[in-house]
Amino acid sequence: MCHISIMYLSTLIRRRGVSSFGIKVSRPGYDVKTASDPNLIFSSEFNTLKEYRVLKLTGLGGGDISEAAHGLSYPPTFIPFRQYGGSGGDWQIHATSYFGPATNFWVDDTKVYAMLSADEIAYVMLFIDPLNE
Predict the structure, then answer these.
(1) In terms of DSSP bridges, do strands 76-83 and 121-130 run parallel, antiparallel, or are they unpaired?
(2) How far apart are CA 124 and CA 49, in angstroms?
(3) Is the confidence at residue 69, as pLDDT, over 90?
């Protein structure tokens, strides 16, 4: 079993120079407060995707494209989720492209786009990380 700690890193600020909140998860048998990086399963200090926001898009149907401003000045990394099989279906990650409507979801420097059926709902998780890096 993993030990999860969501805390203010007050004891680690002086040691590591960290001045923010964070999450750490240690391997079994290691204290999350003192574990070295190799003994951590996750740390918000690691170079991982950083979630920015989640947008909800609703389909317009008729081949029209739904869009929403993402608030960044570059194409962000993203993961779209859509519900298959109607309102009672499973939510799944959908295949993506940032090159345009070759698939149902894409992004550019200002917006997220989706080609969805009428009233179909999708969520797009955006990350701070640029898509092109």
Answers:
(1) antiparallel
(2) 14
(3) yes
